Amino acid sequence: MKVYLIKTPEVELETLEAVSDFLASFDGPMEFSFSDKEFNKEQFPFLIYDETNWPTFEEPELDVDNLDFTLHKMKADRKNSHFYHTVYFEDLFSICEFYREKFCEPDSFVVLLTKYQNEYSYLSSFSSKNIFVNVDHWNKFTQDTDAKYPIAYEVAQNIMSSLMNIDYDQDKFMKFYQKQEKKLWHKKEDLDKVLTNYNPYIHFVPRGCMNDFCGHKKDVILKLQTGNICSTCLAKTFEENIDSRLLKQVISIFNAIRSEFMFQTEEQIRDSLRTGDTAQPFPLIIERTNKIYIKTKTQMLEVRLNPLCKMFYLFLLKKEDGVRVKELIDYKDELTKLYLKIRPGRELEKATKSIDDLVSQKEDTSFNSLRSIINKTIDELLRKTGLANHYTINGERGEAYGVKIPRNLIEYRF
Ligand SMILES: [Zn+2]
């Protein structure tokens, strides 16, 4: 199943690439890729390049335990949205639909990343297999963590909600709520019960499940930290016959994001990476599943790479003396075989195209972009330990490029 990530023009290409690369590093039936296709305001008139359309986000400090208050705030958000040039859900989904018709297989998901504020101030939403995720303001809720993680979470969560056939219409819900509102709710639990009866798969009181509604946006941190799917929602995934491999893939994504949100101080990270006086690099472990880990004293740090990057990195680990870019063409068969091993479902034709781009001698761009993604991932993983250099791809232009790590430190667990 293909998932295409696209963006409105104001979103930085790096954001799109980073989210797509992160999601593509997990094995499973969902195949993530991105396109930097530009959509213009002639086609989509709401794309007026003006920051009034993604206003500075200010969420007042609320009593988060007061559900009634949160629901009132949602109503106010809806009214306030009319002060701006409102961008409707339909506007955003129309871009997804346009892209889908031109470029996608019918059952693909199309995910639009955008900074445009929408009519309900939602962080994300879906309609059938079209999804949008707002990529702005994440630093307000998830300080110190790279925004690509919560954005990737929203992508995976919306795919699940869509596959679970969760039917939710904000306007209908608001009407329902306004009727209930006249009754006086003394206890949050009572109101929660009524709302849960209305739709058991939307949790207005956050419980650390992917389907927490997060009317109060800061609540999103809870589900990012738990990475959980509650028993009610899990039962629904079985009821809807969601492919168990897909569920497993989503859970791996949630777990990886969760670990980014567990509070590790910079000091703890450095401690776990400390090698003692010798400053020797740590072993590099390659699992049978082609997962790559750096084994520190206290933890296994996974080097998460998209399949093409992973293939290239594993290839370079086999080449102790490195390889010149212009010699890559000689290894075409070896590279193709390795790629198909990592991505067994991939059609030969498509695999060959990716490899062709890499080994083509016309330009180094494909090589340089793989190298830069791989090196950035490793640099981030090892932070400022001074050890990254042992694992990154280094070399001089025109000379051989390679990975320095001593080969006796590479352990293949096949
Ligand atoms: Zn749930």
Folded structure, characterized:
The chain has 414 residues and is an alpha/beta fold. The chain has 2 domains: 2-260, Collagenase (Catalytic Domain) (3-Layer(aba) Sandwich), CATH 3.40.390; 270-413, no CATH class. It contains 15 helices and 11 strands. A 5-stranded mixed β-sheet has the order 2-1-3-5-4, sandwiched between helices. Strands 8-7-6-11 form a 4-stranded mixed β-sheet, with no helix packed on it. A two-stranded antiparallel ribbon has the order 9-10. α1 crosses α5 (148-163), α5 (148-163) packs antiparallel against α10 (244-261) and α13 (332-342) packs across α14. The longest helix has 18 residues, at 244-261. It is globular. The relative contact order is 0.10. The model has no long low-confidence stretch (mean pLDDT 86). Zinc ion is lined by residues 203, 209, 211, 230, 232-233.
What brief labels describe this structure?
4-stranded mixed sheet, binds zinc ion, alpha/beta, 2 domains, 11% strand, Collagenase (Catalytic Domain), 414 residues
Write a compact overview of the structure shown.
It contains 15 helices and eleven strands. It is α/β, with parallel strands linked by helices. The protein folds into two domains: 2-260, Collagenase (Catalytic Domain), CATH 3.40.390.10; 270-413, no CATH class.
H/E series, N to C?
Answer: EHEHHEEEHHHHHHHHEEEHHHHEEE
Query: Gyration radius, to the nearest Å?
Result: 23 Å
How many β strands by DSSP? 11
Low-confidence stretches: none
The termini sit apart by: 28 Å
Task: Write the CATH architecture name of the largest domain.
Answer: 3-Layer(aba) Sandwich
What percent of the residues sit in helical stretches (DSSP H or I)? 40-55%
Topology-level CATH name of the largest domain? Collagenase (Catalytic Domain)
Mean of pLDDT: 86
Q: What is the CATH top level name of the largest domain?
A: Alpha Beta
| CATH-defined superfamily of the largest domain | Collagenase (Catalytic Domain)
Q: Tally the helices: what do you get?
A: 15
> Main sheet?
5 strands, mixed
Provide the list of bound ligands, each named once: zinc ion
Walk across the major sheet and give the strand order.
Answer: 2-1-3-5-4
Give the amount of beta strand, in percent: 5-15%
As for the number of domains, it is 2
Approximate shape:
globular
Please identify the structural class as seen in this structure.
alpha/beta
